[in-house]
Amino acid sequence: MTLGYGVMVTLQILVLSFLVRVRVPQQKIAKSLKSTWRFLVTNLKQLRNMETTLVLLKPSCVQRQLIGEVVNRFERRGLRISGMKMMQLSDEILREHYSHLVDKPFFPGLCASMQASPVVAMAISGVEAVQVVRTMAGVTNGRQAAPGTIRGDYSVSNQQNIVHASDSVENAAIEVKRFFKPEEIFDYQSGAFAYIYGNGECK
Ligand code: IDP
Ligand code: MG
């Protein structure tokens, strides 16, 4: 990650010096500087163990009026809600989001179930949040999910399983970008931060 970061920073500096040399208008250079700054901030954050993961409260959650219950679990655990909105999913976003399943026979039914009502998209942050949230969600099939997990407590179905949770750090970054614009993600520090993590736990 550090090597990739170094390469990207060097590339950005080369682009900037090229822009200055070919006398690109100042406004455009300022725009480029702004995106470089955003890039640096985002990537420096990724060097820490603070992660942001995507959760979707599926129609099975929304329709069964479990939104509050499930959101409450993430908050009680000490995770931070960095972004949250209700949305109706399009065919396009579902084909992208479930691209690993498009050839499965259950794909049309999965899309229909995800479009049966709006979903609530959440960006959830914390130290190692991707694994923490995935463990809280439980295994895919609600019938096999352990009691105490979200799927294990609220579902008995392989498909109507209440939540989506990103399955890896790489996919979490892609999925958060898929569902949220940069300005819809809020990087604030929880007032209880010192009581959620011990010294040195958040690098
Ligand atoms: P995950 O949600 O636990 O990551 P994936 O394999 O990525 O599981 O599948 C995405 C979603 O597709 C599941 O959450 C579930 O709603 C649905 N799904 C997965 N396998 C089946 C199946 O065999 N029948 C019906 N729906 C399924
Ligand atoms: Mg998955």
Please tag this protein with its features.
203 residues, alpha+beta, Alpha-Beta Plaits, 2 domains, four-stranded antiparallel β-sheet, 10 helices, 4 strands, 50% helix, globular, binds inosine-5'-diphosphate, binds magnesium ion
Describe this structure as you would to a colleague.
With 203 residues, the chain is α+β, with helices and mostly antiparallel strands. It folds into 2 domains: 5-48; 50-184, 2-Layer Sandwich (Alpha-Beta Plaits), CATH 3.30.70.141. The chain has helices at residues 2-21, 26-47, 59-63, 67-77, 91-97, 107-114, 129-137, 150-154, 169-179, 193-196; strands at residues 50-57, 80-87, 119-127, 163-165. Strands 2-3-1-4 form a 4-stranded antiparallel beta sheet, with helices on both faces. Helix 1 packs antiparallel against helix 2. The two termini are 15 Å apart. The relative contact order is 0.16. Bound molecules: inosine-5'-diphosphate (IDP) and magnesium ion. Inosine-5'-diphosphate (IDP) is lined by residues 101, 106, 110, 140, 158-159, 161, 164, 167.
Portion in helices: 40-55%
**What ligand species are in this complex?**
inosine-5'-diphosphate, magnesium ion
CATH class of the largest domain, named: Alpha Beta
Order of helices and strands: HHEHHEHHEHHEHH
CATH architecture grouping of the largest domain = 2-Layer Sandwich
Quickly give the structural class. Answer: alpha+beta
Cα radius of gyration in angstroms: 20 Å
CATH superfamily of the largest domain: Nucleoside diphosphate kinase-like domain
- What is the CATH topology descriptor of the largest domain? Alpha-Beta Plaits
Shape: globular
Order of strands across the main sheet: 2-3-1-4
The domain tally reads 2
Please report the number of helical segments.
10
Number of strands: 4
Strand content: 5-15%
* Overall average pLDDT: 91
Low-confidence stretches: none
Distance between the first and last residues' Cα:
15 Å
